[in-house]
Amino acid sequence: MSSSSSSSSPSCPKKMITLKSSDGETFEIEEIAALQSKTLESMIDENCASTPVPLPNITGKILAKVVEYCTKHAEVGADAESLRAWDAEFVSVDHPTLFDYILAANFLEIPTLLNLACQSVADMVKGKTPDEIHKIFNIKSTFTPEEEEELRRENQWAFD
Amino acid sequence: MADDNCLRQDFEALSVSKRLMRSVSHKLRKKSLKSEDEDVNAIRVSLRCLTLYGRGGGCKVGADTSEEYGDPSSRRRSSASEEGRGYGTICGTEETGVDCFSYGVKERFWKKNTRKDLELEEPTYNSRMHIFLPDDILEMCLVRLPLTSLMNARLVCKKWRNLTSTSRFLQMRREGLHHYPWLFLFGAVKDGYCSAEIHALDVYQDQWHKIEADNLKGRFMFSVANILEDVYIVGGCSSLTNFGRVDKSSFKTHKGALVFSPLTKSWRKIASMKYGRSMPILGASEVHPDFSATQGHQIRQERRFNRSRTGGGLDVYEDPHRLSLRRQQRNTFDENDLSFSSARKPHKLVRQKIDQSSTKSSRRFVVIAVGGLGSWDEPLDSGEIYDSLSNKWTEIQKLPTDFGIVCSGTVCNGIFYVYSESDKLAGYDIERGYWIGIQTSPFPPRVHEYYPKLVSCDGRLFMLSVSWCEGDGQIGRRNKAVRKLWELDLMYLDWSEVSVHPDAPMDWNATFVADRNSIFGVEMFKIFGQVLDFMTMCDVSEKGPNWRHISRNQMAHELDASSCTTKSLAVVYL
């Protein structure tokens, strides 16, 4: 089975592959959409994708969304503007979900989703003070007050 | 126990799901809190092996890399203490992985969650959850931050600081082009003194910053040029009688040069020029690591190229047609070189061939300083080239005496183009080491006192020139001047108008710089008793292209009018 997208006649069903999440849910995805994942692409190339592909790192909830993303991005004729809006909507989720997207995109090697999600995280950090970042990500500073003061001085450009 | 099984499955799955966190917090609340440090370190080990297992060895340490960066608390010490406590791994070493998690190991794992993490495990999950993002993922997110946000990120915690300070991270940032332009304005004068401050404009966030520059104390009328993330500061004057004041009654002219790196806020001295110069015309460029600095230069060093010379080895004033032919010849030799899309780029130098992924230290740069004023304020006609590899300045061939005083210059595609006050254009071939006279279509007629400025970006050569759009400058005639952006077609040597600058040209010393696709300009002038500043930019890749104001009257109000004369500008993408 080659991975080249076949010009399927109407009677030929679209090639699907099945993915299995860590919690046992299965999802079907068009092979064409799955090609956005480098991991899945190489599996398809090596003919390992005929049985359900187990993805022990990804829960059903996240996998469903990833499948949705790949399917959407495999559509032809979508105009850039509306796709961008769709993407923005896609990443308007809570932090844990967003991070799960990143982990899933990283594992499955989906560069577009990875880029989108990482940029979202960067946007969250952009323009925030360290304290605000602490709150958002719930990170405690591991600096002593002296170290922090020293760093601030190092980083600081403005004296106003 | 249901909880244990639950946990085990989750470990095997290795996804940080809500279910997992719930059982964690449940477990934790049952345990008493012990002291932090030793536990933390032991758990780092466990957590790390977890992550490695789950990610198929692809990822680095999961939660914490401070140990990798020489964090004082060492693993070994903590393991020893762990044994002392009597925690044994039922299933052998810690490296054996997930499927043989003993209760003890699990417990140790979750003990990692020190007091701080306990707070996190409260049931408000949304944004208040501490997520275990692997470091390489975190890097991928942080690399996209603009500079000021990156500086703030560095203050968040040690891990973030360490992750964002490695040279690899900075390289990633450079390669991913997660850069935004910063304008550095030098030469500000306050109350008669060189303010030794650099005014930096974060174009993206429209914020001005002041950088203390003690190294520039007392120095004025120097020139600046940028390469990558460094700004070269060359020449200048200092008052001898009133140090620090902008005073040319008794002054010395500098031969010295400095390099300022805004990113690291560091300064270093480089070799001094042969001649002291103030306001030299600078051109800076990256060169191929094999570039031979002395090849063309020593041979031609003292020879002034002469118009009357015919034939011979020197390429003197050529007519444009032959120039193009020569370029075509070069093209055929360079067939094997990369990125040769058009005859516009005849040189194999610079960007095309240089391996962008090489570290900064292995890259090689040249800075050319031409003209300027000497120790007695006399116009100089000599030029020197600086090679970053040898840290030396070498004199280059002089321009012919009839070329005139050089008033502007820029490097484009391996040629340092210079424009003279007598409206002549010449180009210094950096690699081959000689000047070429360039005959173009007639220069746009210009207003006499306004010398055109050359800038280059994206492999294209531009000129900003002020001309009369109404009247002709004669007294009594309604005169209106306008500043226009022109481009020189490097193949046919034709000037064509590209766009009109929106501001009336009030500043005869308006300064322009360019990098990547954008041209930036600063105009400063005193009107109605106030010094005003206007920063503009133009993206030449856009249709139009149009100029837009990026900052207006935000920084010059405290400055003296003489800043208009002493100012110089550099753009650095940071």
What characteristics describe this protein?
heterodimer, A: 160 residues, mainly alpha, 8 helices, 54% helix, 8% strand, disordered N terminus, B: 574 residues, four-stranded antiparallel beta sheet
* Strand content range of chain A: 5-15%
How many individual helices of chain B? Answer: 14
List low-confidence stretches of chain B. Answer: 10-16, 32-129, 298-354
Q: Work out the number of β strands of chain A.
A: 3
Biggest sheet of chain A: strands, sense, closure?
Answer: 3 strands, mixed
Average pLDDT score of chain A = 85
Secondary-structure content class of chain B: alpha+beta
Strand coverage percent of chain B: 25-35%
Give a verbal description of the structure.
The complex is a heterodimer of chains A (160) and B (574). Chain A is mostly helical and 160 residues long. A 3-stranded mixed sheet of chain A has the order 2-1-3. Chain A is elongated, with a radius of gyration of 21 Å. Helix content of chain A is 54%, strand content 8%. Chain B has 14 helices and 28 strands. In chain B, a hairpin with a 4-residue loop joins strand 10 and strand 11 (266-270). The model of chain B is unreliable at 10-16, 32-129 and 298-354 (pLDDT under 50).
